[in-house]
Amino acid sequence: MEDIQKFTFSVYTENNIGILNRLSAIFLKRHINIESMTVSKSEIEDVHRFTFVVNITKSQADKLIGQLEKQIEVIKAYSHTEDEIIYQETALFKISSKHLYDEDIQSRLKFRRANIVAITPNYFVIEATGLKDEIDNMHDKLKPYGLLQFVRSGRIAISRSKMAISELLHEFN
Amino acid sequence: MSTETQTVKKTTTSKKVNISGAEAVIKCLLEEGVDLIYGYPGGAIMPVYDELYKYQDQLQHVLTRHEQGATHSAQGYARVTGKVGVAIATSGPGATNLVTGIADAQIDSTPMVCITGQVAKHLLGSDAFQETDIIGISMPVTKWNYQITKASEIPEIMAKAFYIARSGRPGPVLIDITKNAQFDKFDFDYKKCTSVRSYKATPEVKEYALNAAAEIINNAKKPMIVFGQGVILGKAEAEFKAFIEKAGIPSAWTILGLSALPTDHPLNVGMVGMHGNYGPNKLTNECDALIAIGMRFDDRVTGDLNTYAKQAKIVHFEIDPAEVDKNVKTDVAVLGDVKETLAKILPKIDKNSYPDWMEEFKEHMTIEFNKVIKNDLHPEKDGLTMAEVIKEINEASKGNAIIVSDVGQHQMIACRYAKFNQSKSNVTSGGLGTMGFALPAAIGAKMGQPDREVVAIIGDGSYQMTIQELGTIYQTKVPVKIVVLNNEFLGMVRQWQQLFFDKRYASTEMVNPDFVTIAKGYHMEAERVSKRENLATAVQKMMDSKDAYFLEVCVEKEDNVFPMIPSGASVSDIRLS
Fold it and tell me: Of B139, B200, B322, which is closest to A18 when you measure between CB atoms?
């Protein structure tokens, strides 16, 4: 049996309506749960980049690449293991303002590369960016203060090695 | 308007003209060489139908009796012509009724463009009358789909639709057009699509892959080829024949590869798969090189993947990179259109022959003949077998007919026993197994190849799924021959119930209507046969008819199709009884 591991997919697509459905359906059809997903514009004009994080085997990842690239609007899809990328996630924590001057919170903010991004008489909001484990850790530590709201983004990732997407687009044209 | 001006206007469509979106749809179809479409009108597509009325001398519209019939007819047309089939429907239920045919076309790689009307743009998402999200619904079963909300988008999107549908590995495309886009006017200008950024229709052929494949093929002692529809879709029949004849390799076909090679070709060793021939299935696990050409290792072909051709080196000629290593791990993948890859590998292949190895196929065929085929074709019992009906059709058609089969026992029998001299002669629903496929597909096949005899072989269950298309046949006078093999059962399910569910025939016995009377109700000549001595004459009478003809053959109620690989078993576990 092959090991299940975390794979991050970078999928470069045309910026068309409906492509998200097509891509997510590929995971759905194979009963693969998407751990996180982000979409943004990429370094190339009019080309969007999807980042999916899933826990699957290597051979599943290889087959998924084939199926993703088969979509008409997909320019190129890449899969990366954890050590092949640099990635970050962002989280927002909304906490009652009564804890604003709590020393524990102040010290955690320094330690975790976090910032206070909003303060009102009733609550304040901490933004933190880091690896998933770091965000999880911060969440666990802030939870006792009573989180009024918590939200985290999907992963964004940059590959360590070159992804020759611009050259490829040139080839397509 | 002078005649000269009229001629110029007809041919120079690149000149901008201010027309409605609906008219643009028709002009796009004409630009793509379409002269026949299947469909069913309704509120959201009425502007296009209104224009069709105007263009009926250039574009024939066939009114099917159900939108599913429109897609299957378009499929039948596409399968026998190699052109793109076109189906058209209104929004909501009209559009959803297309979905079965679209899914069928997707899995069987059939080029098709479906056009659906949609509610006006300002009503989208408001649950308007007959609104459904057909883009969302059809997304998983289309090669590509797109919703047009502005008239000016029509030419570019239609051109793209046809290009995508027919290029590379073909497939169905759905274009949904809102009603406002059909009404609005714009300056029409058409340019054919020849490429789409992000879509590479055909992979580049790699020299190293050809060399590696040639090495495996040339060094094999017991090579075997399994060929699929890729040979037909790639119009590579001549290249394929040249390749196998030079290499001297026994070649077996998948159900959709059938007819790419004449049935009586000396290197044709039969069908692989669940109800395929004994030899090619059994010897799959004895060959030392398995060369797959334009086929996708469907589970009905491979059986248990853990025991499939484990001893063999696998070479896969394939146009779709996603198919490589999807089911069977290959040693060498030769990506590209098989018309190109087979032509390019030919000089690298040694001229060869494998008489001892071929002898093994013949020995297996003898075993199969004695245990199965003899009883199917020359039964001693009273009841008629399905196979002897196919045999009579073969004799009457001399292998020149297009056989359109539905799904079930009769399909397997038709594919096992029908004889073909030329390509694009076997039309059936392979991947999806769509009951109801054959009657409308036969209409499309006959319209696509009017000079050839088209015989639909249908089971009594399948027939009743699209029986209303008899109305289309009556209205169009398309002379298809319909043979219903009636065993008063959903035969294939019953066979499984007998073999794997202790003969518990749950909901598979059918109480059928009088099919002959129904056919006559549609003004079709019709006959019922239940005795062997009348069969040959009845088949000949049907084949001699210049018009559409219905023949019901009452066959043995509980006959089974053998050989059979039980679901999930190894190909070498193929059963003869």
Answer: B139
Q: Identify whether B286 is a catalytic site residue.
A: no
What pLDDT, in 10s, does the model give residues B312-332? 999 999 999 999 999 999 999
Residue B350 CB neighbours (<10 A): 11
Query: What is the distance in angstroms between the CA of the first residue and the CA of the last residue of chain A?
Result: 42
pLDDT band for A112, please (50, 70, 90 cuts). Answer: low
What is the ipTM score, two decimals? 0.90
Instruction: Give DSSP secondary structure letters for B60-100.
Output: EEEE-SSHHHHHHHHHHHHHHHSS-EEEEE-STHHHHTTHH
Distance of CA B426 to the CA centre of its chain: 8
> B245: helix, coil or strand?
helix
Contacts of A18 in chain B (CB under 8 A): 135-136, 139, 145-147
B67 is catalytic: yes
pTM as predicted: 0.94
The closest of B250, B339, B341 to B288, measured between CA atoms, is: B250
**CB proximity B196 to A under 8 Å:** yes
- CB pairs < 8 Å spanning A and B: 49
Residue B316: CA count within 13 A, CB half-sphere: 21
Measured CA to CA, the distance from residue B514 to residue A36 in angstroms comes to 58
List alpha helices for B127-229, DSSP H. 134-138, 154-166, 179-183, 207-219
